[in-house]
Design a protein that fits this description.
The protein is an alpha/beta fold. The protein has one domain: Alpha-Beta Barrel (TIM Barrel). It has an eight-stranded parallel beta barrel with strand order 1-4-5-8-9-10-11-12, surrounded by nine helices. Strands 6-7 form a two-stranded antiparallel ribbon. The longest helix is centred in the middle third of the chain and has 18 residues. The structure holds ligand PBG. Ligand PBG binds next to helix 6.
Length: 335
């Protein structure tokens, strides 16, 4: 190499970008964004029974937990510095019907989990998902008649579902159904029932995505689902439409908004963050978890490193917080 030409580098004018990357302490000093356990919301899948845990084939490392074990998990999450959990029930088959009426049974699995965790771990926030697919017999987020997803009838069911969840101890109601008008209706009825302190995190920019596959196995809706969710979830070719959804949910009274999925939609996170002055959350969904996890398990990538890199990308894009199945693992690693 000693006889290779040396360039004079005059064009640099002394500006060398690598100075700030030379040592670990220097990189720490100039790092623009932070990732901490307080950034995470941990989604938990809940099942019936006592001391029961079941595997989810497509999500290694994630289990469905009976309520008593979910309480234990909540304690671990709180100890790791995670501020909130998002609960999803796997409703037993026998309780599912076309109306999804189990959604507003005040003693349903979701409500029992909310009450038990609120009682045992009052310091952790509880987010309740509102949508019919976790309760109905046909896997759609709304009521179905002659193949059509009914909007206004579904909103009435969502309101009833939100009310039993709030009464059971939900701190945040998170409608994920994408029906028009559900945020305003839920806000109105929560207030009327004395739950004016219960917040709404709207799944505002929720795209019709292939990345939800493992989740549908986890809650037991996938095998029932006929067709797709394209008449209510967003078209992934669009970004202005996502902003219109966010604007409308905020007008209707949402306190926070969410973009979902995460990694393929960082541009939406950034645009929402820059367009609205509200906390923006992002959901790193089940398929994203599966991709990183399975590639890591196969030795194709360093799974832990890829996990942290993906989570950091959400902070860089402007997310206030991240729903991720990696929450506990990442919180322990960072904490
Ligand atoms: C249901 C709901 C879904 C997810 C959260 N709430 C699935 C869907 O819309 O089909 C997906 C979460 C994930 O994939 O991790 N309303």
């Amino acid at each position: 190499m000693s006889d290779w030409p040396r360039y004079d580098m005059d064009f640099l004018n002394g500006r060398r970008q690598r100075r700030l990357r030379r040592t670990a302490w220097m990189r720490d000093l100039v790092r623009e964004t932070a990732l901490t356990p307080a950034d995470f919301i941990w989604p938990l899948f809940v099942i019936d029974g006592q001391n029961e845990r079941t595997q989810i084939r497509t999500m290694p490392g994630v289990e469905r937990l009976s309520v008593d074990l979910a309480v234990k998990a909540a304690k671990e999450a709180a100890a790791a510095g995670i501020p909130a959990l998002a609960l999803f029930p796997n409703t037993p088959d026998a309780l599912r019907n076309p109306d999804g009426s189990e959604a507003y049974n005040p003693d349903n699995l979701m409500c029992r989990a909310l009450r038990a965790i609120k009682d045992a771990v009052p310091e952790i926030g509880l987010i309740a998902d509102v949508a019919l697919d976790e309760y109905s017999s046909d896997g759609q987020d709304g009521l179905v008649r002659d193949g059509e997803i009914l909007n206004d009838e579904t909103v009435a069911a969502m309101v009833r579902s939100a009310l039993v969840q709030a009464a059971a101890g939900a701190d945040i109601i998170a409608p994920s159904d994408m029906m028009d008008g559900r945020v305003a209706a839920i806000r109105q009825e929560l207030d009327a029932a004395g739950h004016e302190q219960v917040a709404i995190m709207a799944y505002s920019a929720k795209f019709a995505s292939a990345y939800y596959g493992p989740f549908r196995e986890a809650v037991g809706s996938g095998k029932r689902l006929l067709g797709d969710k394209k008449t209510y979830q967003l078209d992934y070719a669009n970004t202005d439409e996502a902003l219109r959804e966010v604007a409308q949910d905020l007008e209707e009274g949402a306190d926070m908004v969410m973009v979902k999925p995460g990694m393929p939609y960082l541009d939406i996170v950034r645009r929402v963050r820059e367009s609205f002055n509200v906390p923006v959350f992002v959901y790193q969904v089940s398929g994203e978890y599966a991709m990183i996890r399975l590639a890591g398990d196969a030795g194709a990538i360093d799974g832990k490193a890829a996990m942290l890199e993906s989570l950091w990308a959400f902070k860089r894009a402007g997310a206030k917080g991240i729903l991720t199945y990696f929450a506990l693992e990442a919180a322990r690693l960072l904490g």
